[in-house]
Request: fold
Amino acid sequence: MEEFIQPKHSFLAKTLMGMESILAEELTSIGAENVLPVKRGATFTGDKSVLYKANYLCRTAIRILVPIYEFTAHNEQMLYDGIKKFEWDQLFTYKNSLAINGTVFSDYFNHSHYVSLKTKDAIVDQFRDKYTIRPNVDTENPDIMINVHIHQDKVTVSLDSSGSSLHLRGYKKDAKEAPMNEVLAAGLIKLSGWQPGEPLIDFMCGSGTILSEAALIAENVAPGFFRQQFGFEKWGNFEEDLLNKIKGTAKEAELNAYKGFIGGCDHSPGAVKVALQNLKEAGLRNIEIEISDFKKYHHNFEGGVVIINPPYGERLAVGDIEALYKEIGDTWKQQYKGFKCWMITSSKEGIKSIGLKPFKKYDVMNGALECKYLGFDIYAGSKKAKYTENEG
Reply:
């Protein structure tokens, strides 16, 4: 693979809806230039070091794409010809395996899988024409991952530098059903305004993703620390010494211990067992998790941050979800005065039943569900009168 990443190369970092501003801040902090938030992502420029850092250090990035080629296409033949026109043997050989991922927002193309197939056909046909042998397709563990994005007639072809999604940190060895995405958890923590040193409580912690990500932030452990490999490590222009330097600098910046409390509870013994196992795998031993109903969970703090991901109502009747969210609101008012309490949910009935008015609202996605991320300021003392009952 020839060197194609120039000192001012353009990149695209993908993230989840609602996390664009946080991702932009992270990219700026690692030295990226010309950072611009876009829908579910951010564009930026930089050199190979910035590319490696974006993968290794950004907590809210899903993947980092390296655009290499653009053209226009109105039909499948134009797509095939446009892909085949690019000299792919400049980037890899027929000995490399590849996988294609297509995303389509177009009136001319309506099936992303078909776009992926046509792209694959064009690439392997080019190699067959030149060398009478073609690269293999490997959807599980390819050497080269190619992303084809079509918006109307504009086709953007990129190399995927991340490989598997960056939310797969590598520390989570087990999970309860439908665990929270690590990138989502990190983004929610950042949006809450929580700072290491403040108490952080999750009294519906499930497999502990929010608490784990908070502890990694508090100890300044790079999110890429646990990963076995990034996609760019399979490229012919990979610089191992450069990546090792970035890893070494990140390791030196880690904090051996943090001041403050991170902990919570869950009513499920199985979930708590999984959470503790995941924390052990991550080397995070200062988090306290109990088996407890949230209404009975006890703390001794006069302020801090609560972040919870309660049931959304898919398996609960409307009356039950309303009762649960009322209990959550009542518990906040009674036991968390002085806290800022945050909740992610897709349940409109639940939100109306909390009995508090949020001071902040964000639109986010949890998987395929459109959710609200709501912050509630639980005033203590004379500000208690600012509670607004029965508002959501």
Observations:
- Residues 382-392 have pLDDT under 50 and may be disordered.
